[in-house]
Amino acid sequence: MNAGAAALAALFSAAERGNADDAVRLAAALVEAQRMADAQAWYLRAAETGQPPAQIEYARMRLFGMAGPPAPDVATHWLLRAERSGHPAAAELLASIAIGGAALPRDGRINERIHRAVQADFPPALLTAAIHFGRKAHPEDQALCLRLLQRAAAGGSAVAAALFAERLAHGEGCEADPDAATALWTQLEAGGVARLPRFTLPPPDPAGAPRRLTLEDALHPPQAQPLSAQPRVSTIDRLFSADECRLCIASARPHMHASQTVDPLTGEAHALSLRTSSETCFDPLMEHSALRLAQLRMAAAAGIDLPNAEQLTVLHYAPGQQYRPHRDYLPAGAIGHDHPHAGNRARTVIVYLNAVEAGGATEFPIPGLRVEPFPGRAVIFDNLHPDGSPDPDSLHAGLPVDAGEKWLATLWIRQGRHRAF
User: Fold this and answer.
1) How far from 73 is each of 59, 65, 256, 285, CA to CA, in Å?
2) Same domain, 165 and 90
């Protein structure tokens, strides 16, 4: 018996004696060994003893379908039990589920849960609250954003530390302190965190916005500016704040890979010269409440609810890279392989995430329309006719980046429900 097998056998022996902590240690080791069904069973045994960490891990496995189909209702049951024990991770995860409005109602309990997790210094909740208050122009809200980012960074959130460093560099909500920003970035880069693109934006929400946690604000985007009636194309400037743009880049960057394109005959994805970017498609396991709220904001701008959306994709274009003319609606073969009950991609929402030095516009050749990239700007367009048939006039292209780089977030929204929660 090798050392790994011997260690696992010892964990089995300890867990069989009925101690919940031993069962959790065994379950974690089984996850490492990719024995997901066995891990789930041991987490359940520990959860039934009333141990909140085991309840949360069992709920996560059921929510994300790590050992079978996703079961949001079962996950919610166990998270509610853990929440009653006061565990902040349960509160934040329940809030994240409720943002979708499918498995839990999208109501004021989202704010209450994030607030409780903030009080417990839970980093994902601190990040969510920081980004929320960072959208508001009142100086006290800006100062609160900075304090929350500092607390999240102190709790181990590299994303929060990156957002804090950029605010220091640009003087967002504070006096600019480039020396402190450089020192923080030096620490982050030593830990493998790449520096973010340089840009700044004023807060998108007015100083008169409610000075409290009102996460439902994501459901009320600014009025879209129509650009074309056929195909239907519109834009919203400053849909995202600087923090939300940086959140998407910082969260996606460690997971980037070469972009792929769906084969119209087989429905399979391949890397093709049509599309030369790199990308991250966020698995639900990678999400937290801040990313979920950003996606809710995008879906609300499109006028279609979040459960209809595919997973968020963040794309990066280096100089010379582009996405040649294409259409976003899926061929029949692709729909058959990916949630056929959800139908086709009815609408696309793109948000530019950084300032591009030159090039990188989104072009719609049939109406003769170009949209220039600008941080926080959303482009919304239909891929289908009102009767649900594909609209070939939705042809569009991501023009080559001539200088600098381009980051953008894309949300493809189906005709019917695509997400489990």
Assistant:
1) 9, 12, 32, 17
2) no
CA-nearest of 40, 38, 67 to 54 is 40
Report if residue 397 sits inside a domain. yes
Residues 127 and 52 in one domain: no
Helix pair angle (72-84, 52-63), 10° resolution: 160
The amino acid present at 228, given as its one-letter code, is S
Residue 22 lies in a domain: yes
Instruction: Give the CA-trace dihedral at 48, 54, 57, 62, to 10 degrees.
Output: -10
Which tokens go with 173? Answer: 């909500």
CB 93 within 8 A of CB 59: yes
Q: Are residues 370 and 324 in the same domain?
A: yes
Task: Look at residue 275 in the predicted model and tell me its pLDDT.
Answer: 72
Q: Is residue 201 part of a domain?
A: no
Same domain, 362 and 271: yes
If you average pLDDT over every residue of the chain, what do you get?
95
Over residues 356-382, the pLDDT tens digits come to: 999 999 999 999 999 999 999 999 999
Domain-embedded: residue 186: yes
- pLDDT at residue 326, rounded to an integer: 96
Domain membership of residue 152 as a residue range: 123-190
Residues 220 and 237 in one domain: yes
What predicted TM-score, i.e. pTM, was given to this entire model? Answer: 0.94
399, burial (CB in 10 Å: exposed 0-12, middle 13-18, buried 19+)? buried
Number of domains, the chain: 3
Q: Are 63 and 75 in contact (CB under 8 A)?
A: yes
Q: Render the burial of 242-277: b for 16+ CB within 10 Å, e for the rest.
A: bbbbbbbbbbbbeeeeebebbeeeebeeeeeeebbb
